[in-house]
Structure formats: structure tokens, C-alpha cells
Structure prediction request, 183 residues.
Amino acid sequence: MQELSLNILDVAQNSVVAGASLIEIEIEASEENSLLSIMIKDNGKGMDRQTLANVENPFFTSRTTRKVGLGIPLFKMAARQTGGDFAITSAVGVGTTVKAVFDTSHIDFTPLGDVWDTVAILIQMNEDIDFVYTVRKGDAEFVCDTRQLKEVLEGAPLSDPMVVRWIKEFIEENQFEIFKRRY
Prediction:
């Protein structure tokens, strides 16, 4: 994938399909170590041991519409090719956590991309699911929580194009304020 935001979209979409009611996306940057960490956590149905053992295999998928599942293997490859790390944990009835760590100084680092678009699309297309998007660098932190947005917007649908545009801009401005640059 050309941007890590597309990996985030793919993994979050897996969470949607798994019946999650809450999906947390966290991005943490450390300039001292040149590291970028991405975590996607859900409270979906989770995976049993056998499924978890196979999920990193590109020729395994639980979907019936195609015979391969490249999302997780590509995300893992993107992290590992920078000298980073990748881990996935899951428990049936509890949910799944995917975490990838990237060395941003490595020549093979894939750009983060426009994550604000990704998060805004996820929110727009899944109004019944709560999303918590967190960006952190050092002591600075920004959190966009749809539960709070729903309160502030007093019933305005999160799928309304004007609301979606506002959410996108809100995330983009605050993420740039935290990171002070694009990854």
C-alpha cells in the first residue's frame, strides 16, 4: 500500500466486519528514536487461536468474496522492512489489537498519508460505531472521540457532508499541531 493510512483503513474495516462497537486508533511519534507506532484496537468478536495463527498468512482469509487476505501481511511487511515490529493479539469475545512500529528514518518507511481522511471516512460510513482517534508525541496529545462529537453536535448525523468535512479539518489541524510535520 502506498500510505499507512490505507493499512489503518483496512485493519479498521476488519474491526467493523468483526462487529466492534468501539474502535480505537492511536498514532504515537517519537522523534528522539525516529519511531512511529500505530495501534488499532477493537472490541469485536475476536479470533480463536487457529485464526490468529493464520491471520498473517496472505493466503488465509475469513472472507468469502476472495481467496486472499493481504491487509495484515502488508501492514506487517511495511513495519518490518523499516526494522520495526508488528504484533497482533486477540481473544474471542474480547476483541483484537494490532500494533505496528516503524523506523521513520529508514529509506523503506511508507508515508503515513492523510489519516484524517481515513478516520473521517470510517466515522462517516459507520455511524453506529464509536471511534477514538489519538495522536501523541511526547507530552502532547490530541483525541477525537465520536462519543464526545455526538454530544457536541446534539443529534446532527456524523455522516452529514458538512460534519464530515469539519471532522476531517479538526483532525488534520490538531494532528499537524502535535506532529509539526507530515510523516
